Amino acid sequence: MxxxxxxxxxxxxxxxxxxxxxxxxxxxxxxxxxxxxxETLGVVGxxxxxxxxxxxxxxxxxxxxxxxxxxxxxDITHATAKERRTLSKDIQVVFQDPYTSLNPSLTIGDxxxxxxxxQGTSATEARARVRMLLDQVGLPGDAAERLxxxxxxxxxxxxxxxxxxxxxxxxxxxxxxxxxxxxxxxARVMDLFIDIQRRTGVAYxxxxxxxxxxxxxxxxxxxxYRGDIVETGPADRVTSTPEHPYTQKLLLAAPIADPxxxxxxxxxxxxxxELHREQHVQAGVSG
Amino acid sequence: MSIEELSVNSGLAAxxxxxxxxxxxxxPQAVITSVLLMVIIILGLLTPWIAPHDPNExxxxxxxxxxxxxxxxxxxxxxxxxxxxxxxxxxSTSLTAGLIGASVALAIGITFGLIGGYFxxxxxxxxxxxxxxxxxxxxxxxxxxxxxVTKGDYRATMLIFGVLLSPGVYRIVRNLVLGVKNELYVxxxxxxxxxxxxxxxxxxxxxxxxxIIVAAAxxxxxxxxxxxxxxxxxxxxxLVPSFGxxxxxxxxxxxxxxxxxxxxxxxxxTLTASLVLLGNxxxxxxxxxKLKPSKASAPTAITPRTTTLTTDSIQGSAADLxxxxxxxxxxxxxxxxxxxxxxxxxxxLRAxETLGLVGxxxxxxxxxxxxxxxxxxxxxxxxxxxxxxDGRHLIGLSEQGLRALRGREIAYIPQExxxxxDPSYTVGAQLVEGIRASARMSRREAKAKVMALLAxxxxxxxxxxxxxxxxxxxxGMAQRVLIAGAVASRPKLLIADEPTTALDVxxxxxxxxxxxxLQAELNMAVLLVTHNFGVVADICDRIxxxxxxxxxxxxxxxxxxxxxxxxxxxxxxxxxxxxNTVRTDQPTPVVTATGGKN
Lengths: 287, 598
What we know:
The complex is a heterodimer.
Chain A (H helix, E strand, L loop, with lengths): L5 E10 L9 E11 L4 E5 L6 H9 L6 E6 L2 E2 L5 H7 L3 E4 L13 H11 L4 H14 L16 H13 L5 E5 L7 H18 L2 E6 L2 H7 L2 E6 L2 E7 H6 L4 H9 L5 H28 L1
Parallel strand pairs in A: 3-8, 3-9, 6-7, 7-8
Antiparallel strand pairs in A: 1-2, 1-4, 4-5, 9-10
Helix pairs in contact in A: 3-4, 4-5, 5-6, 9-10
Chain B lengths: L2 H8 L9 H6 L2 H23 L32 H36 L2 H16 L2 H7 L1 H4 L3 H28 L2 H8 L4 H38 L9 H10 L6 H29 L18 H10 L4 E13 L5 E13 L3 E5 L6 H9 L7 E9 L2 E2 L5 H7 L4 E4 L13 H12 L4 H14 L5 H5 L8 H13 L5 E5 L7 H18 L2 E6 L2 H7 L2 E6 L2 E7 H6 L4 H9 L18 H4 L1
Helix pairs in contact in B: 3-4, 3-12, 4-5, 4-8, 4-10, 5-8, 8-10, 9-10, 10-11, 10-12, 11-12, 16-17, 16-19, 17-19, 19-20
């Protein structure tokens, strides 16, 4: 096997508590994952599981307290600001909230061309590239002159995707990119993600709380629970016949959009909960 | 979903972009004050050419000359110096003082504000400490004591005063930056490879520029006042013409020639008042004085259409607990018209039944629910329709009448459990208060009832939760607490507005189980507002699909999921990422970025 695009090994992240002499809290307890070129790794977990922190550590927005992150073979765990700037060509991000991830006082064109100009593209070239990027994400060319507030949530998320695509990255960290969108918009944005991946061969680290979303877009899925990855495998297997009890619970908790199927699933969930309770009781007795 | 979000979404027709400058041009206060300031500044700049005398040229024959004396249009002071010339020269003194003071304060305050706000905690504590120290200096006293150092030069004094003013600017900038720093767009800029300097200059400074410009106007004003004050006290060189010195001179001659005192006072007053008022206008322009929707012609007093009353008696079947008939709701727009957000919605709900009100953001589902609860914002207007609960009309009911219903017959579970609990009271205190508000009972009885309810909604340790503050419990727990409060009075109707949207799926499943159990136990009707079809499939007997303020389709859950009739319902159901779609294509690394070059 060739070296993976991204290799995260034993990643630990610790946050300082608030206030004087507060205790440190470790939110990731040694997380390992790999992403190949052109692949989507879905990271699924509930709030507070640390799934977002994994993405932020890869982006260099939080400092790891242990472990290694390698990108195309080189160690980027503690990349300096300057190295980060070079890396930004290859690693990009799409955030969850399309309302705060765009600077409200910059036009769409300014937002998109800024990273290009910083990296030495001429103004005319940048303008042409912006028009092409907008086209790529299905927005009209005149969007460049407008401000974020003139767009709906789905359109803004398209702008955020265009911004991530601008430097032709190898990897995009997607942090719940469709969670704030309406159902119909969500489906269209997901299709856009997949379409872009097929055309450009970009890899995604796709973080979400929604198993259905992750199943739809991922080749492989990792399940995070309280700062640990409890299960990793092909999307099909992890999201239909999971092995770890937590993943099973997660799967059965997600309601199916069909009354009859959902009733079955609910019964399954209650059965599983009962089973876990019994095991727990037995473990308690024997221990 | 809030009303604000709703109006933003449906008002997508690009609100007119109005730059702060454009707004200023239409504000009479801004126009008048800037014209006054411009006149004063131009006079100050032209002084060397238009002033008839040198400000310090004393003529014995002109002592206390009356206004109108040839060569002395405004008269002369006790030393025989021309008042008009001195006034003109004082303008430049004041403006220089103001500019020096303000620029120093801004330069120091902004620089350290950005540093202190943007960079790490250690740097922030250091700057914080230094600026707190500066703030402890007694300003005026220090300036007078330092006179030997400044050698009486008012410009040097203003430099020091600028330093003394800088903590104010520092605090404004630091607080703004702390807020902006955590915005996702700053993170995005960082990931885009922008240097800290560029992020600070372009994203952060840009976002905080408004308040800084406003502060600048006030700073210039206060620097000018201080310089005049010092000159009035006689601190500093008496060769420098200044409003303060002139007022002091005029003061001594108050009974000989009161006009000597009036001219500089009027000038100084105009100058500082203009600056302060302009500052206020700037603040309105930048920070956006809220657009006030002009009151629409139809007031909030609501009368149900008489026709619906007659149709009700025919339509409304006796079994219906809740019936909403042809309800329409509108909000006044800033232009003064009414914009309908709910356009003729009819719903009915029987006891023990769950109705799912489904739709995307902006469809009017939450507004409909709020109308039933009677908690619409005051500017909302019910333009037509009726709402009946158990045969009683809710629209047009007094606030008192509604309050008697809410919490007793109608209960509500919100989307954000946390924001519906008061952080400064314990959970138990809030529940006890709610119960005692709707039913007469002693505190002890109420507490016993709350404990029983908490146990009923599946909380493991009721006593501990009872004594906890909202921040000490999880979101799922908070929602259980609110459900406990909602069902305390055994309501007939429970309205749940996206009750599980903010929760994790595992918690969501438990909460839905709980609602289902309680419903069976109390034979409640539940109106569930949601956008999640999975939730609907789990708990709802019937479904009404809303789009753009209308119910486009309704029916039993099974009918609607299996045979949707309306194209919008079909589209929504088609957008659901179903269980069986798994990605099958293999990762395809593309070596050359074809996407970029096509």
